[in-house]
Amino acid sequence: MIHEGTQALQKSGSYYHLVVSADIVNQYEKKRATRLICTIDDKVRLQCGLNHLGNGDFYIMLAKKYIKEIGKEAGETISYKLELDPNPLGVAIPEVLEVFLAQDPDGEAIFNKLTDGRKRTLIFSVLRIKNVDKQVETILKFLQTEHEKQRAKKSSW
Fold this sequence. Notes:
The chain is 39% helix and 26% strand.
């Protein structure tokens, strides 16, 4: 499903956002847990999720770098297109994590039991680090911590 429209660019505090009505969100199978690809002014394309606005509607946060790319200010009209992201995580898995999971069946089992949000947290943590050894160390620590959390909840790992 694709939704297109125009609206004034919103700004709250230090961040910009695009408002998505509850009527649109409720059309998606996963409702608010839907991952989307948002195209703005045919210039910027980003993978994103939805956040609650507080009045029943939702919003997509827009980084300042995207606002610079489209060259608009708060209050100016933008056009947008929303489409389902075919990647359920909404982000590519880094090669170091793919290799790690392929070589460590226990780590892969833990990873596969994580929520998509926790998987994204690990992925973004790994992407911030340039050194491969430190990336692997981060993966190990993260998965060990998640495993311990689940064991503490007496889950069947």
